[in-house]
Amino acid sequence: MSPLSEESIRLLLQKYSIKPSKKRGQNFLIDQQIARQIVSAADLTKEDAVLEIGGGLGILTRFLASQAGKVHVIELDPGLVCALNDLLYENGNVSVIQGDALKEDLPTVNKVVSNLPYSISSPITFRLLTEVKPELSVLMYQKELVDRMFAEPGSSDYSRFSVSIQYLADVKRVLSVPAKAFYPEPAVDSAVVTMAPRRQGPFARRDEVFFWMTHGIYSYPNKQVRRALGIWCRNIGKSKELADEIIGRTGGAVESHERLRGLTQDQLVTLADTVLEFIEEGSLPKPDGNSLGIG
After folding, report:
1. CA distance 194 to 71
2. What mean pLDDT is predicted for residues 259-288?
3. Is the pTM of the predicted complex or chain greater than 0.85?
4. Class at the top of the CATH hierarchy for domain 6-197
5. Distance between CA atoms of 129 and 133, rounded to whole angstroms?
6. Is residue 291's pLDDT more than 60?
7. With CB atoms counted within 10 Å of each terminal CB, which end of the chain scores lower, N or C?
8. Better-predicted residue by pLDDT, 209 or 6
């Protein structure tokens, strides 16, 4: 497969009757050097099986196939699936799967490398982290989303997304990617990060309780903890006064007047473990598996 210039991408899109969709976040990377850097960050060997979400026209796939033992590409657009099969027909280690990465059964891999479609970048990230659980991922996002991954408690960027990412993964910045590196050119810059499963604590006793609670209370990030926890208790059918009992049992680790957005990971873990105590005592219901809402 020859390198793809901006002009060759235009011609391929015409050939396969593909019109880049803003709704699907279809922006095709055209910078070969950035593609090489992304793949290099994955430190691939022939022992690695790699998953790519949204193969596009294969600029990353080509480099992945030359270094990994097996490459699985999931692509939703039937025109792009056809293009990938044609462009990569000589690469016997590449498997192209047509389907929705949020719904398809995902293959077993040990690494993920992808320029994620902007439209699904958040939900697919949490699916990867909780279901696929690769030892290493190299992923491209909109820059503002990456900034939220690294946000500190108390900052305006610190959100439920920040909490969930920082709980599940160790994230490192790799490089910034300007908008001009894509065709069509998006309105924002991008950034590439590596993700690996977080190994160092603190961890809640039950992850599902942690995510159930944070999903419930982080609808109100600027409220005081007592207020946010009280609304959540009421939303799950319990008295809002139960919030005072939960906070009181944290032993001073969490104070009622603190702003929710300012709570550290340690404090949220303590709060989740205290909520678990109330669940075990029957004062709170068990999490509903359909409403955990990670991210």
Report:
1. 18
2. 96
3. yes
4. alpha beta
5. 5
6. no
7. N
8. 209
Residue-wise pLDDT for 136-164, tens only, equals: 999 999 999 999 999 999 999 999 999 99
> Which DSSP string corresponds to the chain?
-----HHHHHHHHHHTT----TTTT--EE--HHHHHHHHHHT---TT-EEEEE--TTSHHHHHHHHHSSEEEEEE--HHHHHHHHHHTTT-TTEEEEES-TTTSPPPP-SEEEEE--GGGHHHHHHHIIIII--SEEEEEEEHHHHHHHTPPTTSTT--HHHHHHHHHEEEEEEEEE-GGGEESPPSS-EEEEEEEE--SS---S-HHHHHHHHHHHTTSTTSBHHHHHHHHHHHTTS-TTHHHHHHHTTTTSS-TTSBGGG--HHHHHHHHHHHHHHHHHTSSPPPPGGG----
Tokens of 88: 């990569």
Question: Which residue shows structure tokens 């999490």?
Answer: 287
Residues 51, 136: contact at Cβ < 8 Å?
A: no
CATH class of the domain whose range is 207-291: mainly alpha
Backbone angles phi, psi at 277, to 5 degrees: -60, -40
Cβ atoms of residues 52 and 112 within 8 Å: yes
pLDDT at 178: 97
Cα 5 from Cα 191, distance rounded (Å): 21
pLDDT at 1: 45
Mean pLDDT of 234-252: 97
Q: Considering the chain, tell me which residue range(s) the CATH 1.10.8.100 domain(s) occupy.
A: 207-291
